Amino acid sequence: MDYSKLTIPVSFYADVHDNIGQNCELSWLEFGWLLQSYSRDEFPNKESAPLFSPTRYSGTRDAQHGSTSALLVIDADHGWKIENVVAALKTDSIESIIYSTASNRDGSRFRVVVPLAEPIDLPTQRRAVGALRDYLADCLGLSATGVDQGKLSPVVLFYVPGKYAGATNEFCHVAGDVLAADQWIEVFPQPEPKKPEPRPASLNRNVEWNYEACEAVQAYRSRSNGRHAALYGMMCALVMSAENAGYDLSESELADIAAREQWGN
Q1: Is 94 part of a structural domain of the chain?
Q2: Cα separation of 210 and 253, whole Å?
Q3: Does residue 215 share a domain with residue 181?
Q4: What is the pLDDT along the chain (265 residues), one digit of tens a residue?
Q5: 77 with 94: CB under 8 angstroms?
Q6: C-alpha distance from residue 24 to each of 55, 116, 152, 198, 202 (Å)
Q7: Same domain for 106 and 228?
Q8: How many structural domains is the chain composed of?
Q9: Cα 172 vs. chain centroid, distance in angstroms?
Q10: Quick count: other Cβ atoms within 10 Å of Cβ 236?
């Protein structure tokens, strides 16, 4: 395969608080070279390093705005050893990049980055990365719990490799075959994505709903600091609470509630 023609949609972020990144469409060779280049850079801590998400976005970094992905990323945080994973990938000739994280001390904290033969939608990526997790667990004869389950998503952020102060830094490229997402899923089947819970067929203002009963409001009121940052989260929770109850919450009513809570706290 000509890896210079293997398209990788990806986005980069200056720091973990950055929610709108720089969309890129790189070849696998270009992306690999970039990661290897970062692996030579010195960082005093992970907070000083940039991050990437294995997805392109049309807006903020979330599932609603995510478009396509062609990377599977595994974040191993305990129980697995980087040298054993590298050996397994070499044995099966799986094209991949493996690098340690800023918290690595004994070879048990690292990432595995595997390209796909073609870009796919986000639900399929979720299933494919689950298949990669199960494949590696099977190769190692270990539990899949050695992987950070919260990172098995196309919309999360990963710090780039680097020479992190106090860490044991490792970087390895394994040359091999590039599989399609359906090939991974065929060998290690994954469940179909859950369908969203049905919403009420229609909303109206005659059902019973009291915003003060929403847990998000109580949580907001109990905060001793950071209330301004938490206000948006409370508003989102109120919208969902009203919809689940079938209550037609207007924009003006939501704004009034938010203003009342902000000034009252």
Answers
A1: yes
A2: 12
A3: no
A4: 777 789 999 999 999 888 889 999 999 999 999 999 999 999 999 999 999 999 999 998 988 899 999 999 999 998 999 999 999 999 999 999 999 999 999 999 999 999 999 999 999 999 999 999 999 999 999 999 999 998 999 999 999 999 999 999 999 999 999 999 999 999 999 998 877 666 565 666 677 777 777 776 766 666 666 666 677 777 788 887 887 777 778 777 777 787 777 665 5
A5: no
A6: 9, 16, 21, 36, 41
A7: no
A8: 2
A9: 22
A10: 12
DSSP-derived pairing of the beta strands 42-43 and 163-164? parallel
CA distance 136 to 147: 10
DSSP-H helix ranges across 50-192: 82-91, 122-140, 181-187
Sequential DSSP letters for 177-230: B---HHHHHHHS--PPPPPPPPPPS--BSSS---GGGSHHHHHHHT-SS-HHHH
Taking Cα atoms as reference points, which of 25, 182, 158, 22 lies closest to residue 97? 158
Written as six digits, the tokens of 200 are 């009420």
Question: Is 150 found in the same domain as 227?
Answer: no
Clarify whether residues 30 and 75 are in a common domain. yes
d(CA 259, CA 151): 35
Of the residues 187, 220, 249, the one at which a domain ends: 187
Which residue bears the tokens 């102060």? 165
Q: Which of 124, 25, 11 is nearest to 60 (CA)?
A: 11
For the whole model, what pTM was predicted? Answer: 0.75
What's the burial of 192, exposed, middle or buried (CB within 10 Å: 0-12/13-18/19+)?
exposed
